[in-house]
Every structure is written in structure tokens, then in C-alpha cells.
Amino acid sequence: MMSVFYLALGTIFGFVLSRSGAADYDFIQGMFLFERFQLYGILATGVAITASGLWLVKKQARTLTGEPITIERKAFNRGTVAGSLLFGVGWSLTGMCPGPILVNIGEGKVYALAALAGALVGAALFGAAYETLQKPFGLPPLKKVSPGRAA
Amino acid sequence: MTPIHWSLAGAAIALVTLTLLVVGNRRLGVSSGLEDICSLVLDQPFYKRGAVTSGRPWRLPFLGGLLLGGFLSAVLGGGWSPTWALGMLDRAAGLGHGAKLAWMFAGGILTGFGTRLANGCTSGHGIFGNANFEWPSLVASCCFMVSGVLTTQIVYRVVFP
């Protein structure tokens, strides 16, 4: 039942990304060329409204069903800088960040399948090399790595 | 088609983010979903940890929704049909199909590896982390914006001017 809810939320998110230019190659390049404001506006509004919402959510500190909300904060290490620098290059080349890769496939952009294949290979390479990368990038021990879990 | 106004799009994204938190108790993040997909076929210890297995029940349907949202957008916006069109890159470089696939695959590897090394992308760091005043997310956002700007400037002002 909950998976239908997550599917619906993802669908709304994907639809908005598709219709706002956030999943559009030219809009992404326009942002990085400082020729189009659209993406800066989306990010700024998204962050500002989410921040206000989080302030309210934290006062309540419970989900609608009464479960306590504790937001896990992301840690900083050398990987934060190095990884983000690499990701920026990938975002520019493909014109898609991870969400929009899927949105573009849904839209029928054939080449986006290659971007997804690349992203999965990249993630798999990271997983395979984790223990090697751990020390140089100061990554946490495996059991403590927790991508994107709120509570 | 005229795009949705940026303020409306930003508000909708914030609403999705907050609903995900208040109903599902989940922190928005798309790139960790790449690990979830990998974990379906790979069985290294990295993919067996709780952070991956506990996130799959929400992230996999959410990722499916992203596909569906793009599909619906195309269907309702004049019909769905497969396309190779790539806007500015077509006009600037005129790549063939094989070259486009190679270009996208290479960029995808950087995105997949980079976002996992950085533990987040435009959603987890850019939207949620920044909105939650997490300074590592601000550093991450500055880094991917700077390298994105540099790459696009090099591609469109130096390589294919």
C-alpha cells in the first residue's frame, strides 16, 4: 500500500521535473552558462519552502501516524568535495542529475538509457572500491554509511 | 511548451519533499537509489547494509514514479515517442547515435560514482541538506555547481564555440 504512495510521490516529482526544465538538457546548460534563471529559481524556492516546512515539522517532530521524526544529518569528509566535483562534470555533460535521468527515460529520450547505465556502473564501481577509498577520502565504516534515511 | 514557473516548480518539489518526510518519515534523496538498484543484482557487503535494504521499499517505487512522471508528461504534452534529440548539443556538435551513447555513458559514470562518493546529489544535498542547514550539503552544492559551470563553459565556449 505504501509503495503506491511512494510511486505517486515520485510521479508528481518526475512530472514537475519534466515540465519545469529541470530535466531538460538546454535548461541545464543555460543555468551553467548563466543564460537562464529558471533552475536557480527552482532550487532557491525549493530550498526556502522546504526549510520553512522543516521548521514546522521539527516543532511537531512526529509523522502523521505519530512516529517520531529524527532527521539524520549527512556527515562531511573528503568524499563530499571530490564526489561533488565529479558529479558536477557528469551533470553538465549529460544535462541530467540522478532524478532527471529516469525522467528523461520516461519521456522517451533514448540516450538517457546510456546515462542510467553509466550511473549504475559508477555506483557499482564505488561500492566495489569502498574499502580502498575509505582511508584516502575519510569515509565512515560500512555499517555507519546511511544514504538518505530520515530516521 | 512553456515551462512551469520556477516558483511553482520549487514549491511543488518542496511539497513532495515535506510529504515524504511527514508521511513516510523518509529523507528525500535520489542518488542513493542507484545503490538500491545495484543491490538487486550485486551481493557485496556494501549492498547488504541496513541503509540500503531498509530504503528499498520506498526508493524503488519512488524511482519508478520518476519514470512514470516523465512518461505522463510526454503523453499529456503531445504524445510519447522515442527521440534522440539533444537540443544545443545537436546544434553544436552534431554527434551520431553511437557518440551520444558514449557521451552519456561517460557522464553517467561520473554522476553515479561522484554522487555516491559525495553521499548525495541535487536532491539529498541540494534540496534537503541545504534546507536543513547542513553545512556539508552547502559545500557539496558549491562543488557541483562550480564543476558544472566550468564543464559547460569549456564544452560550449572552448570545444564547440
Concise synopsis of the structure shown:
The complex is a heterodimer of chains A (151) and B (161). Chain A has 151 residues and is mainly α.
Structural overview:
- The complex is a heterodimer of chains A (151) and B (161).
- Chain A has seven helices and no strands.
- Chain A has one domain (2-144).
- The model of chain A has no long low-confidence stretch (mean pLDDT 93).
- Helix content of chain A is 68%, strand content 0%.
- Chain A has helices at 2-20, 25-32, 38-60, 78-94, 98-107, 112-128, 130-137.
- Chain A starts with a helix and ends in a 14-residue tail after the last helix.
- Chain A is mostly helical and 151 residues long.
- Chain B is an all-alpha fold.
- Chain B contains eight helices and no strands.
- Chain B is globular.
- The two termini of chain B are 27 Å apart.
- The mean pLDDT of chain B is 96.
- At the A-B interface, helix 1, helix 2, helix 3, helix 4 and helix 5 of A face helix 1, helix 2, helix 3, helix 4 and helix 5 of B.
Q: Give the ordered list of helices and strands of chain A.
A: HHHHHHH
What percent of the residues of chain A sit in helical stretches (DSSP H or I)?
Answer: 55-70%
Tertiary shape of chain A: globular
Terminal CA distance of chain A reads 20 Å
Radius of gyration of chain B: 18 Å
List the uncertain runs of chain B.
none
The overall pLDDT average of chain B reads: 96
Residue share in β-strands of chain B: under 5%
Oligomeric status: heterodimer
Major β-sheet annotation of chain A: none
Shape assignment of chain B: globular
Instruction: Specify the biggest β-sheet of chain B.
Output: none
Spans of chain A of at least 5 consecutive residues whose pLDDT stays below 50 are: none
**Terminal Cα span of chain B:** 27 Å
